[in-house]
Design a protein that fits this description.
This protein is mostly helical. The chain has one domain. It is 70% helix and 0% strand. It contains nine helices and no strands. The radius of gyration is 21 Å and the shape is globular. The termini are far apart.
């Protein structure tokens, strides 16, 4: 190859740059639209309409890293879903087998790659905590947690703050051990 014609950017670097550009476009143009679609979804165990809002969003899961995609679910879907679950499961005469079937029905709509995400696992664990509370006859879960408005942007921001806090704590602990 002629030295002065050797590209300064390797194919791998070009790919990484293109991937970064695509990621930016997806986060700035597509992610807000997906969040808006989830906000339009009204979760209703008795008559679930417009499930396509949810399934259409799920089709985009492979285009985002799993933590970013889980943030839109955590901010835009799970608060309403958990709130409905809490209210329904705490009604007198509720048939918990139906409630559990409803949870599993929703869970079946999630791609495996999304279900494996630690934040999504946490959300489904919260659902099972609600069911366990009903089974135990307790009243320890505060449903107002699910009723506070939150967006995926807040979720991402809170995660970033938590990561920085964790790193600072790790550095602080590490420096004490270097005595």
């Amino acid at each position: 190859m002629i030295p002065f014609l050797t590209p300064h950017i390797t194919p791998d670097a070009q790919f990484q740059a293109a991937r970064k550009s695509l990621s930016s476009i997806l986060q700035n143009a597509v992610l807000p639209k997906l969040a808006s679609s989830l906000r339009q979804l009204e979760v209703n165990p008795g008559n679930q309409e417009h499930i396509e809002y949810f399934t259409d969003v799920m089709e985009w899961s492979e285009w985002f890293d799993s933590d970013t995609f889980s943030a839109i679910l955590e901010g835009e879907f799970f608060p309403q879903w958990l709130d409905i679950l809490y209210d329904w499961s705490h009604q007198s005469g509720v048939v918990l087998k139906e409630v559990c079937g409803w949870i599993e029905g929703w869970r079946s709509l999630f791609p495996n790659s999304v279900l494996e995400n630690r934040y999504i696992i946490l959300q489904f664990n919260r659902a099972w905590d609600i069911i366990n509370e009903v089974l135990e006859g307790g009243n320890q879960i505060d449903p107002s947690v699910y009723r506070q408005p939150i967006t995926y942007r807040h979720v991402l921001q809170n995660r970033l703050i938590q990561e920085k806090t964790d790193r600072m704590r790790d550095v602080s602990i590490g420096s004490r051990c270097d005595i």
